[in-house]
């Protein structure tokens, strides 16, 4: 019974009854999400329903907690709260902890390094567990508001060596290469994700233990029977804008309960920083609502779309006159390193890249104009203008944006194939196209 009650109580505690500034992420918009969940009919026993309905939080206590959460301390102190965020040992798990700073800051260089217990995150042995956090990027904190900040960090040993799970360090090296810098690489990342009902591991809006109607009406759909979790998507959108994340849009996806947000265009290492911070904010919002976020590339087996993280990419040369030929050369390089990219594009991606549901087969490389069933898609506008960008459709939703963006720049700008391999690849691609 505790499992049934816990999520609803968590949601009630995070609903705000009074009007609060945009800086507070304790919105009263969760009501529609809660109502949708309660209408699903998953609790069939009337006795259970009576128990759920009879337990109510103490309103006075709830209000006092909300007042403290929304408290503006800026008139009373110059101190701020910095939330240090890093990536855990699984490579996709976000961790964070808070510290007080004596005054507001504007640049990561003003922030102190910090440390954490790496043995508790799968990143260090117990006998030598200290891992050092290096602040790398700052965003405004939409949860605490004021001058409080979110800090994206990467992790190092006490000797200053990047730990194995620190993928940002390698990406930063690639993006600092003069040849890469001169090409000003742009990225637009389309992050798909799935919202799951707590405890049952089943998508939001789906009947528990059963399936909704087939795909078709849900993509960018509107209506209570087609859109599940819009409040979460909208709250996330506004929170990202408040934080300073370069979020460019959102939409409901093909599978019901699945959504997407886009980040970009972002230059170089900034793309990874912004995507990771956006993921963190989304995790915090779903935590408040009592909904589970998953980045699994194929959360539901069968005739349902998986979840990807399509990565749009261009260089200065691609965006200038004659850029289409530069794009073709980049695609040729990508074809020669297909296995290298696939191995770095997310765990479980083989369950998604089947050649169905708008994907190419994981075992072969292909490209085409306006073809969403290819590894690399080139837009009609790019073909018509003779310049523009390419879309790598292979990355899974759980990919590391530092790895993917860095690898794209490395393969297309720094790596040179042999003449024999280049000629053979060109012949194969020509035959497929």
Automatic annotation (TrEMBL):
Residues 80-160 form the GS beta-grasp domain. It is an enzyme of class 6 (ligase). PROSITE patterns: GLNA_1, GLNA_ATP, GS_BETA_GRASP, GS_CATALYTIC. InterPro entries: Gln_synt_N, Gln_synt_N_sf, Gln_synth/guanido_kin_cat_dom, Gln_synth_cat_dom, Gln_synth_gly_rich_site, Gln_synth_N_conserv_site, Glutamine_Synthetase. Its main location: plastid. It is found in: Plastid, Chloroplast. Keywords: ATP-binding, Chloroplast, Ligase, Nucleotide-binding, Plastid, Transit peptide. GO terms for biological process: glutamine biosynthetic process. One of its GO terms (molecular function) is glutamine synthetase activity. It catalyses: L-glutamate + NH4(+) + ATP = L-glutamine + ADP + phosphate + H(+). Residues 164-433 form the GS catalytic domain. Pfam families: Gln-synt_C, Gln-synt_N. Its EC number is 6.3.1.2. One of its GO terms (cellular component) is chloroplast. Belongs to the glutamine synthetase family. PANTHER family: GLUTAMINE SYNTHETASE, GLUTAMINE SYNTHETASE, CHLOROPLASTIC_MITOCHONDRIAL. Homooctamer. This is Glutamine synthetase.
């Amino acid at each position: 019974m505790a499992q049934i009650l816990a999520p609803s109580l968590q949601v009630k505690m995070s609903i705000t009854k009074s009007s609060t500034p945009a800086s507070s992420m304790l919105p009263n918009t969760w009501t529609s999400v809660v109502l949708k969940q309660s209408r699903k009919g998953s609790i069939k026993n009337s006795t259970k329903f009576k128990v759920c309905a009879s337990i109510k939080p103490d309103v006075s206590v709830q209000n006092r907690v909300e007042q403290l959460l929304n408290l503006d301390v800026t008139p009373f102190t110059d101190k701020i709260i910095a939330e240090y965020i890093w990536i855990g040992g699984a490579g996709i798990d976000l961790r964070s902890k808070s510290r007080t700073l004596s005054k507001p800051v504007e640049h990561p260089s003003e922030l102190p390094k910090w440390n954490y217990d790496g043995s508790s995150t799968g990143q260090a042995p117990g006998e030598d567990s200290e891992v050092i956090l290096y602040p790398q990027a700052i965003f405004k904190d939409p949860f605490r508001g004021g001058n409080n900040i979110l800090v994206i960090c990467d992790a190092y040993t006490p000797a200053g060596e990047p730990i194995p799970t620190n993928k940002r360090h390698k990406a930063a090296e690639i993006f600092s290469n003069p040849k890469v810098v001169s090409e000003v690489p742009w990225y637009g990342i389309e992050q798909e994700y799935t919202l799951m009902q707590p405890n049952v591991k089943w998508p939001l809006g789906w009947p528990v233990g059963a399936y909704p109607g087939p795909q078709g009406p849900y993509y960018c759909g509107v209506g209570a029977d087609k859109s599940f979790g819009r409040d979460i998507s909208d709250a996330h959108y506004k929170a990202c804008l408040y934080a300073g994340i370069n979020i460019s849009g959102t939409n409901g996806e093909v599978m019901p309960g699945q959504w997407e947000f886009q980040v970009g265009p972002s230059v170089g290492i900034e793309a990874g920083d912004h995507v990771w911070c956006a993921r963190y904010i989304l995790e915090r919002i779903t935590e408040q609502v009592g909904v589970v976020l998953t980045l699994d590339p194929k959360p539901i087996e069968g005739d349902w779309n998986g979840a990807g993280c399509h990565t749009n990419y261009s260089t200065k040369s691609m965006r200038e006159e004659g850029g289409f030929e530069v794009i073709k050369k980049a695609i040729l390089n990508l074809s020669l390193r297909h296995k290298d990219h696939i191995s770095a594009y997310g765990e479980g991606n083989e369950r998604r890249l089947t050649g169905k549901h708008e994907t190419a087969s994981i075992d072969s490389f292909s490209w085409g104009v306006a073809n969403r069933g290819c590894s690399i898609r080139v837009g009609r506008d790019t073909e018509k203008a003779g310049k523009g960008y390419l879309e790598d459709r292979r990355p899974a939703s759980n990919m590391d944006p530092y790895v993917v963006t860095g690898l794209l720049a490395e393969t297309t700008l720094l790596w040179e194939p042999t003449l024999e391999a280049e000629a053979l690849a060109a012949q194969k691609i020509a035959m497929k196209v």
